[in-house]
Amino acid sequence: MSGANPSSKKKRNKGKNPSGPDQATIGWKEEEFHNLVREMGFLLEWGAQFPTPGSTSMDAPPGYITLYAAFFREGNFRLPMTRFTAEVLRNYGLHISQINAIGLPRVTHFEFI
């Protein structure tokens, strides 16, 4: 049995909140970002920006939001979004960043049906 007191670890970390997904450092490679921008046909005037090193999803510059690559690839999100999707978000009082890569296909599937 180790001589370390197991409760000392608890005391040392007491009061610290575990980091959540919003607090995780973004680990993208710039090449991956540029590939996504090209694949999804982002227009230059949309101003997509590669995150600064060490930033988190909460560190988007003023006027910008963070959207994950999975949102576009797995969620099949496209810009510009359809009027139907915009109306659904507006009616439910949601911002596009509040929808996840699983929920968005449900909205678009409903629209297509």
Order of helices and strands: HHHHH
The DSSP helix count reads 5
> Which stretches of 5+ consecutive residues score pLDDT under 50?
none
Helix content: 25-40%
Short characterization:
With 113 residues, the chain is an all-alpha fold. It contains 5 helices and no strands.
Overview of the molecule:
With 113 residues, the chain is mainly α. It is built from five helices and no strands. The chain has helices at 6-13, 30-39, 69-73, 83-92, 103-112. It starts with 5 loop residues before the first helix and ends with a helix.
What are the key terms here?
0% strand, mainly alpha, 113 residues
Question: What layout of secondary structure does this protein have?
Answer:
Elements: H1 6-13, H2 30-39, H3 69-73, H4 83-92, H5 103-112
